[in-house]
Structure formats: C-alpha cells, structure tokens
Amino acid sequence: MGLFWPSITAELLYLDDVPMVGALQYGSEFSLADLFLPGGGQGLYYRPVTIATYTLDRLFFNLSPTWMHLENVLLHLGNVLLVWGLSRTLVVFLGLSSRVPLWAGLMFAAHPLATESVNWVSGRTDLLACFFLLSSTWCLVLFRIRQQRRWLLPCGLFLLLSVLSKEVSLAFLPGILLLLMVRLDGRVARTTL
Does the pLDDT at position 185 exceed 80? Predict the structure, then answer.
C-alpha cells in the first residue's frame, strides 16, 4: 500500500477520463435501471459495476479525487491479499513451501504493470475485474479441493461481477475449463474433455 500512497494526493489526470467524471458530476439521480439496462448512458462500454462505484463516489464523496485514488489503492490491496490467499490455499493443499504465497503477493503488489490501474482513477475497471476474477478463481479452487458444490454459486457470481466490471474477464472462461479439467495431482484428465 505504501508504494501507491502518493497517488492518493493526486488530482484527476486527463487519463482519468475527465469527461466521464464530469458527466457523473452533473448526472441525474442514481437509478438501477439506468445502471444495468443497455442505453443507460454508459458510453461505449457496458460496465455497470464500475459505473456503480463511480456513482457511489459521487453520492458519498462528491467525486473527491483523494477518495477515488484511495479506493483504487484499497482495491489493489484487496487483490494482493486475494493472490496471497489463493496461492496459500494451493500451497497448503500441494504441500509446497510456505514462502511461495508471500512472494506471490509481494510480486503482485509491486509489479510495474499495476501502476496504471492503481494510479489512474479510470484504472478501477482493471482492479474491480481482477478482484472479482481472483475471488471466482479461489472459489473454484476450493470447490475442486473440498468437493463441495456450495463453492460453485459464489464462483459464478464473482465471475459475473468481474465481467460486469470489465468485459475482458470473459477471456478467463478457458482458464475455468482448464481448472475443472486438471486433476488434483496436476495431470489433465482426458476423460473430462
């Protein structure tokens, strides 16, 4: 979190999609219909979960750049914790070194590719999609390890929230199929194809 703390004091940049922020500032009252029904004035993308977070920023924080940047930093921290938790679950199950989750979390936290998503308010789409996709993946891994179907519902809900945050999350569908096909000993089960 300390790596990105200076961004909290930053103003909005042109890269933060200032026209979108301006449209939110002078937009109408909050409406679920406008948020989730196509044609709700969301521009070129259908990202209702992301737009909902910006709308909440308007309602509670008057679109304060400080709060918007803080939310991005906190989302990144949440993603780091999810990477740590997911890798810890796998490491404990596979009996590997307990240092792996720590290193995975630290590398994810400090990776230079995270800079744009965390520092730019408009990068929240990536942070939200990542948060929900990691949550979905963790639920899927827990389903595979524990063989309890109760993990499938949150897995699907988190995947849906990820897609509604940024449509590129649909590209993970083959990854989900692969996670379902891999046997717990690491080999691919040909019979499930």
Answer: no
